[in-house]
């Protein structure tokens, strides 16, 4: 089992795991800084793997209105939106993109910290 390698570059965070190996769960703390803000997370995976991911808000008194807005495949196909948990089968090898942002359908706008927890198997 390999650990995900976390690299912070510009506004995106890259989670890299090579060779189609299973990865240990990783977490990354981030924040939404303003209304309409999105955060982008990129990870590498092999076709046939799956991702399990969760968003945990730092302020648990607020409505859980942060979600996975989209998952984008290496070929550019986008799916979503999802809730604050995601389980998804990865059908392509390469760099996948997760976009996390506010859910406009739940509660009050959220500005604040959150933790992304994810595992690729």
Tags for this model:
single chain; 121 residues; 6-stranded mixed beta sheet; 4-stranded antiparallel beta sheet
Helices and strands in order:
Blueprint: E1 2-3, E2 5-9, E3 12-16, E4 23-24, E5 26-32, E6 38-45, E7 50-57, E8 66-72, E9 78-79, E10 85-89, E11 94-102, E12 112-120
Parallel strand pairs: 1-4, 3-6
Antiparallel strand pairs: 2-3, 5-12, 6-11, 7-10, 7-12, 8-9, 8-11
Written overview of the protein:
The chain is mainly beta. 0% of the residues lie in helices and 57% in strands. The chain has a six-stranded mixed sheet, with no helix packed on it. It has a four-stranded antiparallel sheet with strand order 5-12-7-10, with no helix packed on it. A hairpin with a 2-residue loop joins strand 2 (5-9) and strand 3. The model is unreliable at 1-12 (pLDDT under 50).
- Secondary-structure element sequence? EEEEEEEEEEEE
Mean pLDDT: 82
- Show unreliable segments: 1-12
Number of DSSP helices? 0
Gyration radius (Cα, Å) is: 14 Å
Structural class: mainly beta
Strand content: over 45%
The total count of strands amounts to: 12
In summary, what is this structure?
With 121 residues, the chain is mainly β.
């Amino acid at each position: 089992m390999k650990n995900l390698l976390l690299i912070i570059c510009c506004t995106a965070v890259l989670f890299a795991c090579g060779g189609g190996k299973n990865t240990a769960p990783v977490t990354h703390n981030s924040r939404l800084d303003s209304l309409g803000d999105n955060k982008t997370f990129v990870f590498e995976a092999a076709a046939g793997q799956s991702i399990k991911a969760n968003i945990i808000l730092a302020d648990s008194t607020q409505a859980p209105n942060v979600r996975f807005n989209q998952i984008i495949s290496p070929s550019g196909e986008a799916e979503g939106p999802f809730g604050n948990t995601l389980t998804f089968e990865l059908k392509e090898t390469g760099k996948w993109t997760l976009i996390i942002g506010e859910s406009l359908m739940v509660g009050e706008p959220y500005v604040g910290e959150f933790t992304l927890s994810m595992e690729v198997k």
